[in-house]
Design goal:
Distance between the termini: 31 Å
Helix content: 40-55%
CATH architecture of the largest domain: 4-Layer Sandwich
Shape: globular
Number of helices: 16
Order of helices and strands: HHHHHHHHEEHHEHEEEHEEHEHEEEEEHH
CATH superfamily of the largest domain: Carbon-nitrogen hydrolase
CATH topology of the largest domain: Nitrilase/N-carbamoyl-D-aminoacid amidohydrolase
Largest sheet: 6 strands, mixed
C-alpha cells in the first residue's frame, strides 16, 4: 500500500494536476504507519519514497542518458541510486515518528507526522545544495490552500496539505469520528485558505508592460556545434525584430552558445540600436567569463538605459560544476556536458533594471528556491526566470518547474515571466494564474501584458524560518502530548 501510494502521488503535480492525490496518498502512508514498529515504519516510508521519486523525477534519466551521453545501464543505475537516496527522507520520517512518539493517536496523526514530513521537505530543500522537487505544497497552486502561500510559503502550504492527510488518516483509523471531527476540520482548513487568499499584500505600480518571451527551440544536439552559432543568433534577432511592439523582450538561458566576449560586437550594437529605436529593453541569457580570475558564469544581461548583469548563484551539481572537486571531475569529462564548470555569482546582487522596472532575475532551477527568490524583494516589481528546459526533453520536469514558478508568484505577490528555450514559456500574474502559455518544442514569441507590483507579503519578510520554527514547536508539543498516559 505504501509503495502504490508513492507511485500515485506524482499525479498530484503537473502535468496531471490531480491535486487530491496530495492528500489521499500521504493519508494512506500515515495510516499504514499507525502503530507500526520503527523499523517497519521506516521501511514503509522507504517504499513510499521509491514509488514517489521513481515516477516523479524520472526525467533525471532523460537528462543523464539522452543529453548527458551516459550509457543506458549506467544512467539507469545512477537514477536508481538517486531515487533510493531521496527515499531515505520519508524513511527517516517513518522511523522517527514511530521511535519518538510512543502513543500514536489524534495528535500524532494530525500534527506530529505532518510537522516531521514538512521538516524533511525543508531539509531536502537545502541539504547537499538542495533538491526541492515534489513538495506537497506545489500541487496546491490552484486550490484554496494556495491562499496560505503569501503568508507561509510553500512549506506552510505543504504542512496544511499534510495536516489534511492526517485528518483523513485519522478518519480511516476511527471511522466514527470521520464526520464528527475530521471532515469539519478539513473544511475549516480549506475555507480559511480561501479567505487568506483574498488578502492583497501587493499593489500595482506604474503602467502595465507589454512583454515578449522568445522561445528559440534550439535542439541541444545542435546548439553547441560550432557551425550553429550564427544560425541561432540570426533566429533570435529575427524573432526579436519581428516581435510586436513591446516594452521588454526576454531571451532564455544561454540563448547564444558563446561567451559574452565572443559575441560579435556588431551583433550587440545592432540589438542596442533596436532597443533605442523601438524603446524596448532586453534581458538576455548569456555566458560570461572573467579573464583575470578565469571564472565562468551563467548570467543574464540587461540591454537598457541602465545596463546590468546578474550571475547565477545556485549552481546545479554535475550539470554546472563538479561537486567534491576533483573527485567527480572525471565523471564530468566523460559526460561531456557543455559549459559544466561555472562559478557561483555573489549572493547579494541588486535587481536588474529594464522597462523602467527593478526585476528579480533567476536562472534555471533557482526559482525552485523561494528563500533565494526573495533576496531582491521587496525592491523588485517583477520576477523573470530564464531556463534551458531542453535538458529534460518531453518529460514531467518542465511542467513541474512551471508549477514551482506559480508558487513563487503566489509567495511574493509578483508576476513571473518564464522564458524557456524549448518551452513551456509562460506569463504568470501575481496571483499565480498563467495568463499566457507557449507550446513546447516550437519556435514561438509569447506576447502578453503584465502589471508590475509593489508591496511586501509576510513570506517576503520572514522567508521559511517562520514555518520551520513553528513546525519544530508543533512537533515538540505533539511529542509531549504523545507521552501522556
Amino acid at each position: 500500500m505504501a509503495f502504490v501510494a508513492g507511485l500515485l502521488l506524482p499525479l498530484a503535480f503537473s502535468p496531471f494536476d490531480l491535486f487530491p492525490f496530495a492528500v489521499l496518498c500521504p493519508a494512506l502512508l500515515f495510516f499504514v504507519w499507525h502503530a507500526a514498529s520503527p523499523g517497519r515504519a521506516g521501511f514503509r516510508g522507504f517504499l513510499f519514497g521509491l514509488g514517489m521519486f521513481s515516477v516523479g523525477v524520472s526525467w533525471v534519466y532523460v537528462s543523464l542518458h539522452h543529453y548527458g551521453n551516459m550509457p543506458a545501464p549506467l544512467a539507469g543505475l545512477a537514477v536508481f541510486l538517486f531515487v533510493a537516496g531521496l527515499s531515505i527522507y520519508p524513511a527517516l520520517v517513518g522511523w522517527f515518528q514511530a521511535r519518538f512518539f510512543p502513543n500514536p493517536g489524534a495528535w500524532h496523526l494530525i500534527l506530529a507526522i505532518p510537522a516531521l514530513w514538512v521538516l524533511s521537505e525543508w531539509t531536502r530543500g537545502w541539504f547537499l545544495t538542495g533538491f526541492p522537487w515534489l513538495h506537497l505544497g506545489y500541487s496546491q497552486v490552484a486550490t484554496p490552500l494556495a491562499g496560505y502561500a503569501a503568508w507561509l510559503g510553500v512549506y506552510g502550504v505543504s504542512f496544511l496539505c499534510a495536516v489534511s492527510a492526517g485528518l483523513l488518516a485519522e478518519g480511516l483509523r476511527a471511522p466514527k469520528i470521520l464526520f464528527r471531527r475530521s471532515l469539519p476540520l478539513l473544511l475549516l482548513i480549506w475555507l480559511s485558505g480561501w479567505i487568506a487568499g483574498q488578502v492583497e499584500w501587493t499593489r500595482p505600480v506604474d503602467h502595465p508592460l507589454r512583454v515578449v518571451l522568445i522561445q528559440g527551440n534550439i535542439s541541444l544536439d545542435n546548439k553547441w556545434q560550432p557551425g550553429s552559432r550564427r544560425v541561432i543568433m540570426d533566429r533570435y534577432w529575427s524573432l526579436s525584430e519581428q516581435a510586436p511592439r513591446s516594452d521588454l523582450i526576454v531571451w532564455p538561458e544561454s540563448a547564444v552558445p558563446a561567451y559574452l566576449d565572443e559575441i560579435d560586437s556588431g551583433y550587440l550594437d545592432k540589438l542596442r540600436r533596436l532597443s533605442q529605436e523601438t524603446k524596448v529593453d532586453f534581458l538576455i541569457g548569456v555566458m560570461e567569463r572573467d579573464s583575470d580570475t578565469r571564472d565562468y558564469y551563467n548570467a543574464v544581461i540587461s540591454l537598457s538605459p541602465q545596463p546590468g548583469i546578474y550571475r547565477k548563484q545556485h549552481l546545479v551539481p554535475f550539470g554546472e560544476y563538479p561537486p567534491f572537486d576533483p573527485l567527480f571531475r572525471w565523471l564530468m569529462r566523460n559526460l561531456q556536458i557543455p559549459m559544466s564548470d561555472f562559478s557561483a555569482g555573489p549572493p547579494a546582487q541588486p535587481p536588474l533594471t529594464a522597462a523602467g522596472q527593478p526585476i528579480g532575475v533567476t536562472v534555471c532551477y533557482e526559482d525552485a528556491f523561494g528563500e533565494e527568490v526573495i533576496r531582491t524583494l521587496p525592491q523588485a516589481s517583477l520576477l523573470v526566470n530564464v531556463s534551458e528546459d531542453a535538458w529534460f526533453g518531453d518529460s514531467f520536469a518542465p511542467h513541474q518547474r512551471l508549477q514551482m514558478a506559480r508558487m513563487r508568484a503566489l509567495e511574493t505577490g509578483r508576476p513571473m515571466l518564464r522564458a524557456a528555450n524549448t518551452g513551456p514559456s509562460a506569463v504568470i500574474d501575481h496571483r499565480g494564474e498563467v495568463q499566457a502559455f507557449s507550446p513546447q518544442f516550437k519556435i514561438y514569441s509569447l506576447t502578453a501584458t503584465v502589471q508590475p507590483m509593489q508591496g511586501t507579503t509576510p513570506y517576503i519578510l520572514y522567508g521559511n524560518w517562520t514555518v520551520v520554527v513553528l513546525l519544530v514547536l508543533i512537533a515538540a508539543f505533539a511529542a509531549f502530548r504523545s507521552r501522556e498516559p
